[in-house]
Predict the structure.
Amino acid sequence: MSALGDASAGDQLEPRTVTITRADLVAYAGASGDLNPIHWNERVALEVGLPGVIAHGMFTMSLAARYVADLAGDPAAVVAFSTRFTRPVVVPDDDAGATVELGAKVTDVTDDGARTVTVTATHDGKGVLGKAVATVRPR
């Protein structure tokens, strides 16, 4: 049984820290087709008023969704995931990259065992995803 499968409403789940590098952004750009230069070119990012190259919002969301899927023990158990993008993740041009801290709390368990999970994602102590909620249904 997964950690999420045993969780009750109110339970905090094991946090995770993920690292995003420029190489991750290039790989995601190629896979997604989102080749916007703000995700890989420092000069362009600065010219448009950003503090530097930023991670794709959907990439950040995918990291949070994968975290929930790992907690569930089965990616197909995650039947819904929604969020708002609240702040960009600035990814430096170095080997360390940027870190995003992920956390989750079970906020509801239905009679059929489905769990509503609220997810937090922070970078440099500030939220980067808002109202991130997943629905996980046992299979």
